[in-house]
């Protein structure tokens, strides 16, 4: 869902360092606001058509589906808190919705990882290692595995009647890889807790007082519900109207930028 936000990454970095809002690909907005439950269902249908499972070539597609469902659950429960921060920031000083949204999520992520891993991850190997695990990831020649790319493209076409195209998907993956490397570089600490002027106050405002840790636990439980629904949809003899309705009853279409 978030890969489109890394489009034209060098330009995004330049804008960040001069205090300008990042300009993500419009597909990022589409993936968060339109047909988000149906896109998961369409991915399941594409996996079924290809008779993929967790073995060999099917593993990346199954992993993608799990990651998509987890992202859906996290955004569904945590984005209402993000939106509250955005409204407060706009009321106080104006500015751009996107920059306030990104800032709130940045602080939530920093303090969550600090609590769970016991350290500030910025400037460490962690971001680079995480992004390197993405199938096909590379800073120079990123390329999604064919089966995974076909599943993603077919699912997007089924829901949106158009697709970003294979080259754009691969470009998003390449720049995401660079993002991980940048955060793990010697300058990565500048995006971390060590560079914050009042880390304790920000930790209370964006993490402790809003109960993010509890929301992550709830979203994890919701993800398990989603995965059970996906497992049923993958195993059912026919993905007919009733089976589709059951899945969407668990994994609904929502505006995930807002959450629910």
Radius of gyration: 19 Å
Report the span from N to C terminus.
Answer: 17 Å
Beta strand count: 0
Q: Can you write the helix and strand succession as a string?
A: HHHHHHHHHHH
Shape: globular
Query: Ranges with pLDDT <50 over ≥5 residues?
Result: none
Q: Which percent range describes the beta-strand content?
A: under 5%
Q: How many structural domains can be distinguished in the coordinates?
A: 1
Tell me what you see in this structure.
The protein has 260 residues and is mainly α. The chain has one domain. The chain is 66% helix and 0% strand. The protein has eleven helices and no strands. The protein has helices spanning 9-17, 26-33, 36-49, 59-93, 97-117, 126-132, 146-160, 166-183, 199-208, 212-235, 241-250. The two termini are 17 Å apart. 32% of the residues are buried. The mean pLDDT is 90.
């Amino acid at each position: 869902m978030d890969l489109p936000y890394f489009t034209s990454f060098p330009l995004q970095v330049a804008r960040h360092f001069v205090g300008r809002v990042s300009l993500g690909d419009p597909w990022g907005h589409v993936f968060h606001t339109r047909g988000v439950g149906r896109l998961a269902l369409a991915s399941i249908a594409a996996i079924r058509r290809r008779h993929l499972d967790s073995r060999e070539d099917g593993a990346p597609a199954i992993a993608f589906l799990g990651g998509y469902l987890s992202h859906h659950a996290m955004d569904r429960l945590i984005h209402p808190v993000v939106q509250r921060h955005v409204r407060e920031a706009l009321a106080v000083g104006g500015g751009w919705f996107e920059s306030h949204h990104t800032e709130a999520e940045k602080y939530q992520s920093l303090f969550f990882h600090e609590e769970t891993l016991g350290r500030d991850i910025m400037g460490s190997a962690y971001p680079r290692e995480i992004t390197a695990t993405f199938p096909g990831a590379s800073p120079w020649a990123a390329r999604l595995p064919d089966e995974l790319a076909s599943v993603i493209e077919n699912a997007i076409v089924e829901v949106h009647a158009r697709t970003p195209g294979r080259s754009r998907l691969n470009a998003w993956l390449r720049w995401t890889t660079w993002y991980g490397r940048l955060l793990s570089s010697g300058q990565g600490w500048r995006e971390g807790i060590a560079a914050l002027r009042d880390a304790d106050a920000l930790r209370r405002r964006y993490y402790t007082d809003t109960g993010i840790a509890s929301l992550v636990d709830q979203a994890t439980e919701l993800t398990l519900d989603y995965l059970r629904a996906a497992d049923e949809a993958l195993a059912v003899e026919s993905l007919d109207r009733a089976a589709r309705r059951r899945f969407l009853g668990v994994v609904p279409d929502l505006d995930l930028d807002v959450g629910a």
